[in-house]
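Pilot study result, target chain (275 residues):
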Amino acid sequence: MDNMLPSPGYNIPSIGTPIHHQEDESIQTQQQQQTPRHPASFGMNLPHLQHANISQAQDNHMMSPAVQRQHEGSMSIYGPGTPAPATPHTPASVADPGIIPVLQNIVSTVNLGCRLDLKKIALQARNAEYNPKRFAAVIMRIREPRTTALIFSSGKMVCTGAKSEEDSRLAARKYARIVQKLGFSAKFLDFKIQNMVGSCDVKFPIRLEGLVLTHGQFSSYEPELFPGLIYRMVKPRIVLLIFVSGKVVLTGAKVRQEIYDAFENIYPILKGFKK
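Predicted structure:
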């Protein structure tokens, strides 16, 4: 037994399991021949990756032919030059619709610069009414622009109902001219727009309960008293009436731009509470 030589295929060390050098070399050669050369195999010549390829080849060698074909088919769905399909990209959010608030009413004031006899104005002017027991001013109306004026005995006048700044000034000048024709030395002083009212529709219902809970510092909502939520914006200083249907009324502006800025500020908030 001492003279017995070891088998040519085995190199028996003093301790440990026999190492199959020839089988490893044949398997490695076979693996290198089967491995395609394409850019995806960059870095496969590293020692630790070669050891992983040898282990995988041994596992494939131990499989049955049917299982091995199924395994290879699942590993190589796409060819070497065919890139895998890209992940579907989520489309960008649709831009906000171009909703522009429409001016519904403009309130302006002007000083006529003289004392007025309201009874004389009410008797001689057309489309004028005066009831001092109900209201201490003459109520006068014209058709173009379609507006209403409140004329006080002090010479102050309030013009309401215009849809634009130009119409409000034009209507105020027409009322002043009417008073001049009645024999008063009326002037046109200190014209100023005091309030502008706009409205728009965001085209989706709004959860007013959630809005008042989140923005309780700026809003109040009492559906038993009034169906709309009252939102008091700080900058610009605008008051908004927001309804569950999506209708929004903006009031308290001195210039048109404040209406637009207030709606630009409130629209993302309303979109967050869309039903």
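One observation from the pilot: The longest helix spans residues 165-181. A full batch analysis is planned for the follow-on phase.
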